[in-house]
Amino acid sequence: MAENNNMGIALTEVMPDGQGGWQPVPALMTEAETIRFLRLDVEDGTDPAQTLARYRNAGQLVAIKVGRWNRYRRQDVEDFLARKSEQKQRTMAQ
Q1: Which of 25, 29, 42, 55 is least surrounded, with the fewest CB atoms within 10 Å of its CB?
Q2: Residue at 65 is within a domain
């Protein structure tokens, strides 16, 4: 989905804002933004924060400590998704 921001720059990467709208994907995301970007908040019966922590603790997704808070680089999250997709494709090919 492409949108224009108030400076007229085309934004090609957006994510749900948690309120029914869309927002640009920041280069450094909070845990809440990462959960929305990965759409973990739409799964039934699971705690999205625990799912994110499981990925982090397993070394599948890198978090950067900024102060006391975890932050996630958008590129790291996209790389995580690419690896998950490759794993799924390999599994299906076997």
Answers
A1: 42
A2: yes
